[in-house]
């Protein structure tokens, strides 16, 4: 496993070691001790989630508020997504900065998303199977979000606007300014 820093503080790109032979591939998708050694951060994950999306589905940008904030390790089991995070920690040197990365079933990269980040992804393949670990439980009512096309964040989704598929909830998320001022 290799861990690379991203431009955002405390957010890491994880590149698992892939073993390939005539049967296919093998990889360890999570190794608590090694990850803690390489990142200096040791989260205790308590919930695993999986979602399936079709082409053009954009989920996000989501976070849980305050004491229910979640560290996540996100990855793609099948297909390809553009994964996007934004640092929403006002005291962070990278506050309001975003980072985008392709996660797919070929590179098998994972993103370590710290507490206090907003997270979203857009499915670029016909279908994606997305999986993630969380270090706190889902808490309905504590969900927060920022609209995907926030005028200050200016995330380049690089995708035709009229082909995006969003939930009603995500279409009505506030802007960064509305959420934080
Ligand atoms: C996230 C979540 C949802 N649910 C339920 C609530 C709802 O009825 C249904 C679908 O929920 P949502 O529309 O919020 O699902 P979704 O839009 O996929 O939400 C996820 O988006 C990505 C980007 C994240 O980063 C995640 O943390 C999570 O917020 O599943 C749970 O029971 N447990 C959970 O942990």
TrEMBL record:
Pathway: Carbohydrate biosynthesis; dTDP-L-rhamnose biosynthesis. It comes from the Bacteria. SUPFAM superfamilies: RmlC-like cupins. Keywords: Isomerase. Gene3D superfamilies: Jelly Rolls. It holds the Pfam family dTDP_sugar_isom. It catalyses: dTDP-4-dehydro-6-deoxy-alpha-D-glucose = dTDP-4-dehydro-beta-L-rhamnose. One of its GO terms (molecular function) is dTDP-4-dehydrorhamnose 3,5-epimerase activity. It is an enzyme of class 5 (isomerase). InterPro entries: RmlC-like (IPR000888), RmlC-like_jellyroll (IPR014710), RmlC_Cupin_sf (IPR011051). CDD domains: cupin_RmlC. Its EC number is 5.1.3.13. Belongs to the dTDP-4-dehydrorhamnose 3,5-epimerase family. Catalyzes the epimerization of the C3' and C5'positions of dTDP-6-deoxy-D-xylo-4-hexulose, forming dTDP-6-deoxy-L-lyxo-4-hexulose. NCBIfam families: rmlC (TIGR01221). Homodimer. This is dTDP-4-dehydrorhamnose 3,5-epimerase. It comes from Gramella jeungdoensis.
């Amino acid at each position: 496993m290799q861990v690379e820093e991203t431009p955002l503080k405390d957010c890491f790109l994880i590149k698992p070691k892939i073993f390939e032979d005539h049967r296919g591939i093998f990889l360890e998708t999570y190794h608590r001790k090694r990850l803690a050694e390489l990142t200096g951060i040791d989260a205790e994950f308590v919930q695993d989630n999986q979602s399936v999306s079709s082409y053009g589905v954009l989920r996000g940008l989501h976070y849980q508020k305050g004491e229910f904030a979640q560290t996540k390790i996100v990855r793609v089991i099948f297909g390809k997504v553009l994964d996007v995070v934004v640092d929403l920690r006002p005291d962070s040197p990278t506050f309001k900065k975003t980072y985008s990365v392709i996660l797919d079933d070929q590179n098998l990269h994972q993103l370590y998303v710290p507490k206090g980040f907003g997270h979203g992804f857009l499915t670029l393949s016909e279908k994606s199977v997305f999986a993630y670990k969380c270090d706190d439980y889902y808490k309905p009512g504590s969900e927060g979000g920022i609209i995907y096309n926030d005028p200050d964040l200016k995330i380049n989704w690089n995708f035709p606007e009229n082909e995006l598929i969003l939930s009603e909830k995500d279409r009505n998320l506030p802007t960064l300014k509305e959420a934080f001022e």
